[in-house]
Amino acid sequence: MPRRFPKFRPEAWLATIALIAICGISLGNVIVRYATDASFAFTEEFSVFFLVVLTFAGAAVAARQNQHIRIELVEHYLPRWACKVVYLLQWLAGVIVLGVMVWYGSTFALQEYEWESLSPGLGLPNWIYVIWLPLLSLAIIIRMTQSLVDRLRGKQEPEVIHES
């Protein structure tokens, strides 16, 4: 049996750290609330931020491993050349949507920085939270492109069996 080395992906580590942070913050808040009938003020703000980071970082990991939800039935019954066209169309649709997110997310982060907007809960600069949207959207585009190149070259990992 060939030995598989773990894949180092920065976004996988980022998603893991975000999930651990959400769990730690939530657990700490529950314990404090149970013991003192009060709660931490920052938990909601940080939890939402970490949830967004977790979602986008996880999407980048899924894009690289070609595990996003899609209709695979069409791919199974098409000839190889038609599958390549479908792969390109899937990639193009994703790049368009994520490209819009990169553009408007960058514009929004820049505006938050220029206006010196502060978060309502803790008073931290909003751009710290918002900058992750365009950065992680760009990471997803990069991972989708890597996956497309692999699929066009025929270097696909073994297909995952989806149970439903």
From TrEMBL:
Domain of life: Bacteria
GO (cellular component) term, any one: plasma membrane
Record-linked Pfam families: DctQ (PF04290)
TM region(s), chain numbering: 12-34, 46-64, 85-106, 126-145
Alphabetic keyword roster: Cell inner membrane, Cell membrane, Membrane, Transmembrane, Transmembrane helix, Transport
GO MF annotation list: transmembrane transporter activity
GO biological process: C4-dicarboxylate transport
Domain called Tripartite ATP-independent periplasmic transporters DctQ component: residue spans: 22-153
Compartments it resides in: Cell inner membrane
InterPro entries: DctQ, TRAP_DctQ
Topological category with respect to the lipid bilayer: Multi-pass membrane protein
Annotated function: Part of the tripartite ATP-independent periplasmic (TRAP) transport system.
UniProt subunit comment: The complex comprises the extracytoplasmic solute receptor protein and the two transmembrane proteins.
Family: Belongs to the TRAP transporter small permease family.
Protein name: TRAP transporter small permease protein
Organism: Marinobacter fuscus
